[in-house]
Write a structure and sequence with these properties.
By secondary structure, the chain is an alpha+beta fold. About 20% of the residues lie in helices and about 35% in strands. It has 9 helices and 25 strands. The protein has a 6-stranded antiparallel β-barrel. A 5-stranded mixed sheet has the order 9-18-15-11-13. The protein has a 4-stranded antiparallel sheet with strand order 8-10-14-12, with no helix packed on it. Strand 3 and strand 4 form a beta hairpin. Helix 3 runs antiparallel to helix 5 and helix 5 (about 150-165) crosses helix 6. The longest helix has 16 residues, at about 150-165. The two termini are about 25 Å apart.
């Protein structure tokens, strides 16, 4: 059974009004056993935004008039090696120079409720740079001569019409004809699969058992598996279903943590890593607040994913993971309990109990564009920490053009412009102090979505 018991309103109010900065201090003081996770962390490629590299001009028309912006391909440098090319799918939000991005499912981005998401993928597969024969592309669109810059601009404009329902046109006539052609021809395609994920990302059980299975999903030919060296030294191994140690695995392979009988209660992790081309159409969202991107091209790139394990001899033995749920406007916290006693914790002012052998998901409401940061603790020093920013919608109000760097950042640098510095600044210069003030205020007042989660230890856990 899964039970919820309401706690006092004073405790909930105290949690809700705490600022993000204060929350960080409290969590940091909670103890050294905290496991930091940027949520969600489903695996795949992580990359740093390098800027708008291949672009021409476009004009956005809105209630405030017209804005001329750069429209084209961004580039990202992949952690561990590789390069990505992306288009923007969030036209009215700014980019942050050197912002960190993570590969995401569409369900964790503004595409979650976009009926035209599949059409965007069609455009990506049928235009530049996937189609790099520009004369062939121009002939299909009957556009006239295309360059790399105008082909990128026309493709971006077509994407914006579906991602943001934007009134936008390319300045170059050939680019505008390409955008019209792509918009008219686009068809619905399915979401591409992730480059690499581990399912589930967290397992638990008793010492002496094999904890798992953890299934590997990837388009890579081979995945390297690396256990935590500290756990290996204590006798914990990563094995297959027959108990044979595993150093590499392919798509569909199953992994287990083999914990020796009598091992001291503890936890560990493994890292799976591969080199592959990330599928075109995968979404990329920032870890802070920088416009969402969608993949147009990938070199051979490093992708990775992690999984954790927690074990004990008796009592509650939790496994926890978290994932953004844009459809519900929050973060799904999934808790399972492979122990022999109930696992009880508090979440957003309510107490939750997971009975032995059960698993439940609790959705933590988070407001759009606001940060969250919470920790769940368990017996024997177990703690799990989740943080991030809920970014599930495109901006409804026109703001800084996509080629501009944000005047106030939350992790990325605001120095310089990702548009090359030679584009019109229409609509941005006078608003810069206001935008900066709003961004800073959101960071401080984002405590409205900061939740403190605390495991209420059972009698046996206290012993």
């Amino acid at each position: 059974m899964f039970s919820v018991r309401r706690r006092g309103s004073a405790r909930l109010a105290a949690a809700v009004v705490a600022s993000g900065l204060v929350a960080a201090g409290v969590i940091a003081a909670a103890g050294p056993a905290v496991a930091d996770d940027a949520t969600p962390s489903p695996g795949g490629a992580t990359a740093t935004l390098e800027g708008l590299k291949t672009f021409d001009e476009a004009v956005i028309t809105n209630e405030g008039g017209e804005q001329k912006v750069g429209a084209g391909l961004f580039e990202m440098t992949v952690d561990g090696g590789g390069t990505l090319q992306t288009y923007c799918i969030d036209i009215h939000n700014p980019t942050q120079s050197k912002a960190q991005y993570q590969e995401k499912p569409w369900s964790a981005t503004s595409l979650h409720n976009n009926a035209d998401a599949g059409k965007i993928r069609w455009i990506l597969q049928n235009s530049y740079p996937q189609v790099n024969d520009l004369s062939k592309l121009a002939a299909a669109a009957d556009s006239g001569t295309l360059t790399e810059k105008t082909a990128a601009a026309g493709t971006q404009v077509a994407i914006w019409r579906f991602s943001d329902q934007a009134r936008v046109e390319a300045v170059d006539p050939a680019a505008e004809k390409l955008a019209d052609y792509l918009q008219q021809k686009a068809q619905d395609l399915d979401e591409p699969k992730a480059s690499l994920t581990l399912d589930p990302p967290a397992v638990s059980g008793k010492s002496g058992d094999r904890l798992g299975p953890i299934t590997v999903h990837t388009d890579a030919a081979n995945v390297t598996v690396s256990p935590d060296p500290a756990s290996e030294a204590s006798g914990v191994k990563v094995v297959d279903k027959t108990g044979k140690p595993v150093a590499s695995v392919t798509n569909g392979g199953e992994l287990f943590f083999d914990v020796p009988k009598g091992a001291a209660d503890g936890s560990t992790s493994l890292t799976a890593q591969a080199t592959t081309t990330v599928p075109v159409g995968r979404a990329f969202a920032s870890r802070t607040r920088s416009q969402t991107q969608i993949l147009a091209g990938s070199s051979e790139s490093t992708v990775s994913a992690t999984a954790t394990a927690n074990w004990a001899k008796k009592g509650p033995i939790p496994a926890l993971s978290a994932e953004k749920n844009c459809a519900e406007g929050g973060v799904d916290v999934t808790a399972s309990n492979e122990g022999d006693e109930p696992f009880t914790f508090e979440l957003a002012g309510s107490e939750h109990t997971i009975e032995a052998g059960k698993s439940e998901t609790v959705t933590v409401p988070v407001k759009e564009d606001q940060s969250y940061d919470f920790t769940i603790t368990g017996p024997n020093g177990f703690e799990k920490h989740f943080s991030g920013v809920l970014d599930c919608r495109t901006a409804e109000t026109p703001g800084t053009p996509s080629s501009e760097a944000s005047p106030a950042t939350a992790g990325g640098s605001s120095e310089g412009s990702t548009g090359g510095g030679d584009l019109a600044q229409t609509g941005s210069s006078n608003a810069t102090p206001v935008i900066a003030g709003i961004a800073i205020a959101l960071l401080v007042l984002g405590g409205g979505t900061v939740f403190f989660l605390r495991k209420r230890k059972t009698t046996s856990a206290d012993e």
